[in-house]
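Z., the sequence and structure:
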Amino acid sequence: MLTLIIFGKSNLGFRIIDLFFLVITLFSGGKILKSFGIISIAIFIVTFAGIHLSGGEVAMGERDFFMTACLSVSVYLYLKAFDKLSYLNFFLSGLFLGYATCIKPTCILWLCICCFMLFFATSLNKKIKTSGLVYIISGYVVFPSLFLLWLGYKGGLSAFVDMSIHYLPIYNQGAKNSIFTLISTIWQTPVGSLLAFSVISIPFLDQMIHDQSNKRIIILIVSGILFSILHYFIQGTNFYYHLYPLYFFTSLYFSIIVYYLFKSEDRRIKAMAFLLTISWMCILNLYIIPTIFKKPNLINQYDRQVAEQPALIDEIVSILHRDSIQQHEKVQVFDMVGGGCNVLLDLNADTPTRFLLELHFTEMGWKGPFPPYLQRLWDEFIFGLYAHKPKYIVLFKSSYFYSGNASNIVESIELKHFIHEYYTPLSEAEKYIIYKINDY
């Protein structure tokens, strides 16, 4: 909302906010790596920024990216709190972590890791450890508490609780990918190469293993890698942006590995560090260069019929403006991954029901009847369309309804009947169809 107030609905404003969070992440990562020297910091900056750039427009503004920025600040403040025994830094670390949790609840796992490390820190006495735990937890609960108060003020708390209790278990059962798919997706991304290089380097990292001065940082970053893997697997879908925390922590870890390899007195190990760095930069360019030229790579999704691409959104909005669409006109969008809702934002349009998108009825992977709770939601959605018919329907050809891959064939037939009964195509292109209600 603040982005809209400051910059309006322009792509430039959105890119500025995305760049702002990228700078926050890079700055925090650089501060974490301060004791490892400028080369490690430079490698981290190039690595994480390069991976983010490789994702193209689709990766911009993703929740896991914003979450990672807050998490990076929390990690830096947490380490700084140990160095200076600052209760304020413990509180601020918890504060940023609490904000990250409002974005993705899996961050509560990171709170558990931080509290565990603090509780068992041998360099601190019992009083300091107890006070530190109190401060970090006190900071952590601030934003989740404000979020719940805001939901209550807006009248949405009961719906939020209802969704958490009834819908999330259904989504967890129906939308998850197989373990094989999740693992193979990791290896298709730049993280796969970083992890491979890290494993190759293990026999040569004796100096890192015995370095007591940076022990806490290294343990925290390794813990971060494990947390990131859990974060990815708990969500259960192979969306590339779910790997952002893993991008961050593996970038830090690889930078540290290179530092210790270069620090070795053995010329062969130094040569290995040089070869690893050059090899990694070449691999990273295989992701970056295609994105710069708007060509598909393994993570930018330019080869998919998705609606996140700004030019596609602008094209649809332009057609509807030529048809004299009014502000707050009712418009329904059908898309596969959710980017189509940008059409509603650009048009300042309203939805005919309380459901912004239909994707939760189509991506679930159900075969046959819906579970009772999901069926009630679908009935509310389809009857809402009949009762408050939108003037326009934007059907992306990426939608499961268009492709015939909707998980419930009965619901797909109901929707097609509704469209054919009351709507006429206004415009059709390679990636979408715009329908207009017959009454107009």
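Strands lie at 331-334, 392-396, 423-428, 432-437. Residues 211 and 412 are 61 Å apart (CA to CA).

Let me know what you think.
H.
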